[in-house]
Amino acid sequence: MRVVDGEYKTAEENTLSVVETDNSLEYVVFKLAGEEYGIEIKHVQEINNIGKMNHFPGAPQFIAGLVELRGDYLPVLALRRLFEIAETDTDKNSKFMVVKYGKNRIGILIDSVSGVQRFKTASLEAAPEALKGNARNGYIEKIAKADNGQRMIMLLNLAALLSFM
Question: What is the pTM of this model?
């Protein structure tokens, strides 16, 4: 993972790797409307401050627009819209996370980055069935408890989240 314009500047030689033998996975944990979410680190390419975003007609309502990133244009997913959370103005503190899943590459608007956290697979719980019975089926894949159960982190299911692509 490479973080640009943020607190987590990691040189390539210092990149964290998942050690498969300890049955744990690493997630990039971020905040959105005061709640914490996580995306498996192997899918996160970088985190950038939001700059100029171009809006385009006909895009799904949950696409905030397009950003130019080193010559490529990426669609930016507005999770607040997708999750029906009240929106705030995008300001100089807003960030977007560049995520790659399969052949798809997309930016995701976030409020802030909490950090990288490792969870033992045995400590992850499946998302409650109540969250799977509506149109937003499967966006939350698992629930992780951190800090001795004091923090709940919802781990996103990228396959479901990016199913529109």
Answer: 0.79
